[in-house]
């Protein structure tokens, strides 16, 4: 059984001095009004939502100027090419929600969908004292956690997805939102192992302005799968957050692997659909955005239906004992 490893970068875009400038700053523009990074203008983006929430058929596509593009392959990783600490972020799971939504890697233009477990839409269980996702959660476009190589930091192969991200700011966000955030650090989580690591204080300003938050969120990732019968998830390295330099190095590596993927040079693309609309030079993966909907049978416009009901068990709170085992009340 292969162990997956994923880097979770931490972001901040609140009133905290550290990143206050970020919110005011529009994407850098060139003379003709296009964003500096590959002519990408975030104002051109919109969403196409089809189907009922909480069902397997539900999808959200990203559009640019009204035509479908890929959340994963067509949004630039670095909006401002010069500052590698500022990255684009695709919101899959808004704060205070629990539906496990993610980028669909094996469908053309990689829409968002509701992940399933045993063919049922998956929601995250709430482990006391948390409720649902306490942060914005999503992924970083144009990165790939390559499953064909063992990463030198975690010692495990990647999980075959874009690099994940959680944003600790005050924005609640919405499904499919594409925003720019500042990297504060990273967490390397190694799924399906059992180890305990000592905590370590995170970024100094973070601790000053949001005392306890870094540790609480790290613990959220450590224990969130226990209620469904999975093991505690260890944090690779020394169990704490990695610094910005480390996180940026991981992003650069993930971006290089992604570039290999979309060029068609990856050893094994692992059933990823990497059709993209932004690099005509990439033979074999480029499609014209205005031709994508017809070519791939993507619905022409939004058609939202009423959401399906969420199973009652996801409204519960789950409690862990001092050994981090699920507490069951005897009959
Ligand atoms: C991984 O190892 C390579 C060389 O072996 C090094 O250049 C790179 O910085 C390392 N990456 C990380 C994230 O440590
Ligand atoms: C593009 O999409 C088609 C249809 O799903 C698929 O057959 C093909 O493999 C995809 N190409 C790439 C490069 O992902």
TrEMBL record:
<dbReference type="Pfam" id="PF00719">
    <property type="entry name" value="Pyrophosphatase"/>
</dbReference>
<keyword id="KW-0460">Magnesium</keyword>
<dbReference type="GO" id="GO:0005737">
    <property type="term" value="C:cytoplasm"/>
</dbReference>
<dbReference type="InterPro" id="IPR036649">
    <property type="entry name" value="Pyrophosphatase_sf"/>
</dbReference>
<keyword id="KW-0479">Metal-binding</keyword>
<comment type="similarity">
    <text>Belongs to the PPase family.</text>
</comment>
<feature type="signal peptide">
    <location>
        <begin position="1"/>
        <end position="21"/>
    </location>
</feature>
<dbReference type="InterPro" id="IPR008162">
    <property type="entry name" value="Pyrophosphatase"/>
</dbReference>
<keyword id="KW-0732">Signal</keyword>
<dbReference type="GO" id="GO:0004427">
    <property type="term" value="F:inorganic diphosphate phosphatase activity"/>
</dbReference>
<dbReference type="GO" id="GO:0000287">
    <property type="term" value="F:magnesium ion binding"/>
</dbReference>
<protein>
    <recommendedName>
        <fullName>inorganic diphosphatase</fullName>
        <ecNumber>3.6.1.1</ecNumber>
    </recommendedName>
</protein>
<dbReference type="GO" id="GO:0006796">
    <property type="term" value="P:phosphate-containing compound metabolic process"/>
</dbReference>
<keyword id="KW-0378">Hydrolase</keyword>
């Amino acid at each position: 059984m292969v162990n997956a490893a994923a880097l979770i970068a931490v972001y901040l875009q609140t009133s905290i001095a550290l990143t206050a400038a970020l919110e005011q700053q529009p994407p850098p523009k060139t003379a003709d009004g296009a964003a500096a990074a590959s002519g990408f203008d975030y104002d051109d983006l919109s969403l196409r939502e089809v189907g009922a929430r909480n069902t397997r058929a539900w999808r959200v596509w990203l559009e640019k100027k009204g035509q479908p593009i890929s959340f994963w392959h067509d949004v630039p990783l670095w909006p401002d090419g010069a500052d590698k600490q500022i990255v684009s972020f695709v919101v899959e799971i808004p704060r205070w929600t629990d539906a496990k939504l993610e980028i669909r890697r094996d469908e053309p233009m990689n829409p968002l969908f509701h992940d399933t477990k045993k063919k049922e839409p998956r929601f995250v269980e709430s482990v006391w004292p948390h409720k649902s996702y306490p942060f914005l959660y999503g992924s970083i476009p144009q990165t790939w956690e390559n499953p064909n190589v063992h990463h030198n930091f975690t010692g495990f192969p990647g999980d075959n997805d874009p690099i994940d991200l959680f944003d600790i700011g005050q924005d609640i966000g919405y499904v499919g939102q594409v925003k720019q955030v500042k990297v504060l650090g990273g967490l390397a989580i190694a799924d399906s192992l059992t180890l305990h690591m000592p905590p370590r204080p995170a970024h100094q300003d973070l601790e000053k302005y949001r005392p306890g938050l870094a540790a609480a969120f790290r613990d959220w990732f450590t224990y969130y799968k226990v209620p469904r019968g999975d093991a505690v998830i260890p944090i690779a390295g020394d169990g704490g957050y990695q610094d910005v330099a480390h996180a940026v190095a991981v992003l650069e590596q993930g971006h290089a692997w992604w570039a290999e993927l979309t060029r068609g040079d990856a050893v094994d693309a692992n059933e990823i659909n990497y059709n993209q609309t932004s690099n005509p030079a990439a033979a074999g993966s480029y499609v014209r955005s205005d031709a994508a909907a017809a070519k791939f049978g993507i619905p022409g416009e939004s058609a939202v239906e009423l959401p399906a009901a969420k199973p009652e068990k996801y409204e519960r709170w789950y409690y862990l004992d001092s050994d981090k085992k699920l507490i069951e009340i005897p009959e």
